[in-house]
Amino acid sequence: MVTIRLAVRDWDYFTPLALGDIQPQDFKLEIHRVGTLVGDLATSRDYDAAEISFSRYAQLRAKGDNSLLALPHFLMRGFRQRCIITTEDNQLVALEQLKGKKIGVTGWQDSGNTWTRALLREVGVTIDDAYWYAGRLTQEHPIVDRLNGFGRPGRIDAAPGERPLIDLLKAGELDAVFTPFMPQGFFLKGSGLRQLQTDFRQAELDWFNRVGYIPGHHLLAFKPEMAAAHPDIPQQVSELIEQSARLWHDKREKYAETTPWLLDDLRRTAQDLPADWNANGFGANKKMISDFATELFEQGITAQCLTPEALFPAVTTGA
Questions:
Q1: pTM, full prediction
Q2: Which residues contact 275 (CB under 8 A, 6 or more apart)?
């Protein structure tokens, strides 16, 4: 029996699958939890499938690189309004106010930061309307190349002295920071930090009602040789993950006391969003895929504007 080694972030909806409540019948699935995404699944000796960056996958496709088979199964989705942070004493409260400002990003080509810049572009703040600095969020994060060749001296630079973005923000050397995850202590009283938009939830809901989706960031991908040898397995793995997510959600509604107001969040989500807000598959996500491809091109991350069909050729027949 073939074993599929799948590397994913520690998303809680994988719990039923990881614990064996849901199991494949014709193959064995090993869930490997990783702190960061696999650098290069195509050459990895450790994994057959993995959670990968939507942006990096699109860049491969734009260069004609077919070393990965990705499905339009979005393991990570998330609004980005909440990911723009500033200091509590800063007067900035609207995206339009970021024109001419200094903004820190944790990685220029990252899917999430691409989506966040799309929010600014929608209100007329382009890349050339701000000054950008890429770097590590906090002292605990590693110093790595976060520009990846997209730097433009005087416009898009590395953080000065590789100082952490949060330190630069608190020192007043940055006006805002884009980050997918909040720094430790962010939610505590007296942290000195806050989301830029004071009612970011309403801003996110308004945005959803305009565009009709929650942005996708990470995809489910496989090595093509594995998929060629076992053509039914990629879709079966996708379906198993969806089963796990449904079971996890049902149990979450029952065991909602993990935080005091989780039940209310579940209620508001069910009332404010359509039931299929998290649906996977090509048809359900075609508009979002197209919009993301447009952003990658407009922001200079890909040299061509890919179509959804070009991004997911293996699954578009009959879609």
A1: 0.95
A2: none
